[in-house]
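Friendly challenge for the regulars: who can give me the structure tokens for this chain first? No prize, just bragging rights.
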Amino acid sequence: MNIVLIGFRGSGKTSIGREVAALLGRPFVDTDALIVQAVGKTIREIFAAEGEAGFRRREVAAVASAAEGDNQVIALGGGAVLNPVNIAGLKARQAKVVWLWASPKTLHTRIQADASTNASRPNLTAGGGLEEVQNLLAARLPLYEGAADATLDVGGISVEEAARKVAALWPH
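First reply, four minutes later:
Bragging rights claimed.
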């Protein structure tokens, strides 16, 4: 059984996922990293060359590839829930999905503080700022809620504490 982490950019999917994998002795797979490795470009470069539609096509392939493995911890890109095929493919293989939730303000603060992510990822929308995070998160809320088997508020806890809580949900 795979454990899959979903959530908005800045929710800690990669950091928490690595920690959960270490705690459970499982491999860690980051679908965004799979895409970057396969293409040899940053996500920002893929968006610039192929648009969001091109990136999302690549994302479907990366999620399907990750779903083929078992007993992994998988971090999905923040927008992977936009295509129902991604979640359906994981759920068909009995994956358990954890939504890492944080307030828009917390997410915006984390996104702004992460210079390496900002350099390699496209802007979320043309406007930018907290309002952009609020609007995109509001649009995705039903998708995150519908996909999640469990939800964890990661706004006020450390990566290690979040990882312990995720690992405790399905320890085997």
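The beta strands are 3-6, 28-30, 73-75, 96-101, 150-153. Helices lie at 13-24, 31-39, 43-67, 84-92, 104-113, 115-120, 129-147, 159-169. Your move, everyone else.
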